Structures are given as C-alpha cells and as structure tokens.
Amino acid sequence: MEKIRKKRNMFFLVLVILFMSVGSLGTVALANYTNVLIEASVVNVRLGPGLTYDIMTQIQGGTAVNVLAEKNEWYKVRLADNRIGWIASWLINNTEVAASQNLIATVLESSVNIREENNDDSDIVGSAVSGDKFDLLYEENGWSQIHYNDQVAWILSSLIEISPGSIQETIETESSQEETAVAIDENTALVLFNDVNVRSGPSLDKKILWNANKGDSYSLVGTNGDFYEILDSDGQTGFIATWLVDTNSSTEENNIVQTNTTLSEATIVIDPGHGGIDPGAEGIDLYEKEVTLKTAERVAEKLRSSGANVILTRSADEDISLEERAWISNSSNADLFISIHYDSTPEDVYGTGVTTYYYQDEHLALAELMNSKLEQFLPLQNNGSRFGNYLVLRENTQPSVLLELGYINNNDDLNTFDTDYYRGLVADSLYEALVEYFE
C-alpha cells in the first residue's frame, strides 16, 4: 500500500513538472512572438505601415518592443511609453540602407517584375524597364528591396546596378514655375501641381498607382464623384482628384478661387495637426495633437465671433488623413486653409520659435503677412516664412499656410505656448492678419 501511494505521488509530481514545462515553453514562445529586440543601431518608428508615413520617433539598438500585429512586412509595436507605431520588419536585425548609405538601384534589363515579397512565387506589384531608378532599402538572399510607388517592394539583385545617391524631388527652376501652357481639349485632363497621386479607384484610400506632375496631360475617360478617371499613353487607367487638374469642361467657378472682401464673408478651414493614432511630436506629459486642437478651437472661436464661416478638419481626437484635410479645404472652396502644428527637434538638438510655411509662390505674400502678425503678438522667437513641401499645402488648391507655433520638446517654449494666454495671442494675431488680408 505504501509503495502504491509513493508511486501515485511520483506520478502526480511528474505530471506537475510536465505541465509546468509545457507552460513555460508556451510562455517563452509567446514572449518570442510578441517581443523583439532591436539589434540595428537606430530604427525609425513610423505612424503607419509604410515609408511614406511620418517618423514618430526613433529607437536605439538594444531596445525591446512589444509586437501587436504585422502588415505588409511591417510590425505594429508598442513602445516603452505606451505609444504605438510601426517598424519595418526587415530593420529589426538590419540597418535601413537608404537612410544610412543613400544607394540607388538602376534597372538593367528591358522588362523586369517587381514583387511584393522576396521570392519568385510572390505577387507581382508592378514592372520596370531599363534605366528606371529606385531608392535601395535593403538586400537579402539575392533580392533587393526598393521604394516603389509609396510602398516597399522587391526586385532581383542580378537585374539592377547599385550606385551612390538617392531619388530626390526635382527642384523647379524659375522658368518651370511659370504657368504651363499646354493646349487641351474637353477630353484632356491637365495636372496643375507636382507629386499628384493617381489612384486605383475614386477614393483617397485607394492604392496609389503613380505620381503625376505639373503639366502632365491625360485622356479624360469620365467622372466618378470627386475624381476623374484618366488614361495614360500606355493604356493604364487611374483616378485623380478633380481639384488637382484642369479641363476645358471645368467651369470657371471650379477653377478660380474667389477672394471675399471681408472676413465675415469668408470660409476658413482650420486644421489641428495630427490626431487619433497619430500623436505628433511629444513634450512632457503632452502630445502635439492635444495642443493643436486647443489652439485651433481658440482660433475658430475668435474668427466665428467676427462672422466668418469656420470649418475644423477635426473637432476631437480622431484620425484624419492628410489627403482628407486637403480635400476638406478644396471641396468647401475655402478662402483660406490654416494648418496648426508645434515643432520638435531630434534629441540634444536645440530649436525654438515660430515658423510660417507656404508651398505655392502666390501664397508667399499671405504667409509673410500672417508671419508678421505672429511676430508682433507672440513672445517666442520668430523664424520667418519658409517654403514647405507638405501634402496639406501641396495638394491644396486654396490659399494655404502651415504654422509651427513653438517647439514642444523645448521646455521654455512649451511652458510659454501651453497656456490659454498664448492661444489667445495666436487667435488675435491671425484675426488681425485675416482682416488685413481680406481688405
């Protein structure tokens, strides 16, 4: 009997040890799946799963991050401060080539396939011809990862030549900034701006097929909502926002921005930067998205008291894409679009003050007027008016500016602008600028 009892106890002990072992293995497997250690020297954390999303922050090698999900070879991660962003999965153990070495991949063959993943069985996402150039991001097992149509894709390394450099936007010369004179008929769409997205469907959330530039013309197939369906010379169809092109069938009302004579007659779009999953820059116990909304609400209150029709691109902590912000301005035929932000600098780099940005040359005078009033009213250093290649300005057909009203990671700036008093001064300065602008 005693032997039976000992055997039974031993049996239960073995079971306990077995279950504990299985449990610990499961825990290890789960930990390995949900947590990764950054081995590269520095990795960018972006606001979304792609290289076109803004950089939220950077993390150093040796940092552990919690992986929440995976999408298109990007990891959705939670950082130590509980912020959520996206990291390219191929950068966990490697360094981003384009960022550190600036290499270009030039296609050598007459026709090559560009694939979604680095294998011959992967879906083909496009093609390239001899002479086409792409930013090289990473190389692995005979494949090269490139920046292709605002996404990452793969091409066989044997089909390309690698050379130093990077693909940069061509800076327009003074002559190219003049209005492009191209004869068009009622079946032709003429692109009015640079870097205009042509999409796979009539919506801002559809895939970007290619980018068109000022002066490009396409055959006009038809209209679908706020988008034209166009046809390029190779027979490929795409969709482009109606406010970014000109056609002879467009009415004069659609192509000419009417400037009202008084502020009380004007429609003003105020854009609080960031929001939702996009926190913007980070200060001490404060995200940029919070203070931009507070400032926008104060400005809106001031302008509405003068009779202006004010539209906020967001009135709560919600996700609004950059394309949607520009669309709100264009579709409402706004007399003015003002995007409100607070700046930041990399760690150990000092920045302070207020800056006013514009994109179109014809909006420089507006930017300088607004900046002069900000300099007059605000206590922070004024950094002047500057050209800014921001999407909310670039794809905006209405008069538009973007304001950086202080540096959120500068404690002196932060203590100055995170007050009702400062927001009141911003509202007063913009009100004075707009009264003068519309007069």
Verbal overview:
The protein has a 6-stranded mixed β-sheet, sandwiched between helices. The protein is an alpha+beta fold and 439 residues long. The chain has helices at 2-34, 97-101, 252-255, 288-305, 322-331, 364-377, 391-394, 411-417, 420-438, and strands at 35-37, 42-46, 55-60, 64-71, 74-78, 84-88, 103-107, 112-115, 124-128, 133-140, 143-148, 151-156, 160-164, 188-191, 196-199, 208-212, 217-224, 227-231, 237-241, 245-246, 267-272, 282-283, 286-287, 309-312, 336-343, 354-358, 382-387, 400-407. The model is unreliable at 14-33, 94-101, 169-185 and 249-260 (pLDDT under 50). The chain has 9 helices and 28 strands. Strand 10 and strand 11 form a beta hairpin. Helix 4 (288-305) packs across helix 9 and helix 6 packs across helix 9 (420-438). It is 26% helix and 33% strand.
Read across the widest sheet, the strand sequence of neighbours is 24-21-25-28-26-27
Class computed from helices, strands and strand pairing? alpha+beta
Q: What is the count of helical runs? A: 9
Distance, first to last CA: 106 Å
Beta-strand percentage? 25-35%
The count of β-strands is 28
Radius of gyration: 27 Å
Q: Judging from the principal axes of the Cα atoms, what is the shape?
A: globular
Give the mean pLDDT.
77
The biggest beta sheet reads:
6 strands, mixed
Helical amount: 25-40%
Uncertain residue ranges: 14-33, 94-101, 169-185, 249-260
